[in-house]
Amino acid sequence: MHASWLFLLSLLLALPITSPLALLSPLPTRTRPDFPILQNPPEADPPLVYLDSSATSQKPLAVLNSLTDYYSFHNANVHRGAHRLSRDATEMYESARDKLSAFINSPSRSSVVFTKGATESINLITNTWGRQNLGPGDEVVLSVMEHHSNIVPWQLLKQYHSQDIVIKFCPLNENNDDLDYEALAGMITERTKVVSLVHTSNVLGVTTDASRIYKIVRSQAAPEAGKGRKRVLERQKSAFWS
Ligand SMILES: Cc1ncc(COP(=O)(O)O)c(C=O)c1O
């Protein structure tokens, strides 16, 4: 059989068998069976609802199975061994980078850096790019609805490495239910080097208008850092901006 047919066949076999009716049911009803933790205890009434995904995301069966498979059959050092297991682990690791790169629509596979969470990611940016590129008078724009993971790394950078950077906080609108986009436009100056904003806020539950932010920032010609953790969880493309 031709290789491309084999590939197509393997894709079809990998697809979950979902009836068209199931696809019409609400997303929580469709996704709940994928998460063993949400069936636990099975008789719970009302059923468990979990809303703390930014702190710790629950893992669906596909992830749990994949972890078990990895630790059962492939576990080895990535990029640091000449033996078969290490080669396999390296291939799996690098193919995950490709998949993730396509998933978040990143400009290239080398834009994907694996970290263990949001705090480590932003610390990495501030301690590498930040230390090298931010100096006295340079401005970093955040918002008043940021989580600590997007505030403290910038404050540490200011305190210990680049004392004269200016950290600005974009306010909320009059109703306190979204970012004040006009204020944001007014806060970006020729000294702005970074705009780092949460996309879906755990403080307000609001999802900001990312394309509007993008246009505001681009029109003011500031290189921006996007904080897109929640959107990745929600499978939103273009989660990170660079
Ligand atoms: C809303 C929100 N954002 C960011 C973070 C930080 O995430 P991490 O633990 O990956 O650094 C948390 C952690 O609790 C969080 O609740």
Topology of helices and strands:
Layout: H1 3-14, H2 20-24, H3 27-31, H4 61-73, H5 84-103, H6 118-133, E1 139-143, H7 152-161, E2 166-170, H8 181-187, E3 192-195, H9 210-219, H10 229-233
Parallel strand pairs: 1-2, 1-3
The structure holds pyridoxal-5'-phosphate (PLP).
Description:
43% of the residues lie in helices and 6% in strands. With 242 residues, it is mainly alpha-helical. It has three domains: 17-50, no CATH class; 64-114, no CATH class; 118-233, Type I PLP-dependent aspartate aminotransferase-like (Major domain) (Aspartate Aminotransferase, domain 2, 3-Layer(aba) Sandwich), CATH 3.40.640.10. It is globular, with a radius of gyration of 22 Å. The structure holds pyridoxal-5'-phosphate (PLP). Residues 54-55, 117-119, 147, 149, 202 line the site of pyridoxal-5'-phosphate.
Name the CATH superfamily assignment of the largest domain. Type I PLP-dependent aspartate aminotransferase-like (Major domain)
What's the end-to-end separation, in Å? 43 Å
CATH class assignment of the largest domain: Alpha Beta
Helix content: 40-55%
CATH architecture tag of the largest domain? 3-Layer(aba) Sandwich
Per DSSP E runs of 2 or more residues, the count of β-strands stands at 3
Small molecules bound? pyridoxal-5'-phosphate
Average pLDDT metric: 83
Count helical runs. 10
What name is given to the CATH topology of the largest domain?
Aspartate Aminotransferase, domain 2
Domains counted in the coordinates: how many?
A: 3
The percentage of residues in β strands lies in: 5-15%
Give the C-alpha Rg: 22 Å
| Biggest sheet record | 3 strands, parallel
Helix and strand composition category:
mainly alpha
- What's the arrangement of strands in the largest beta sheet? 2-1-3
Shape: globular
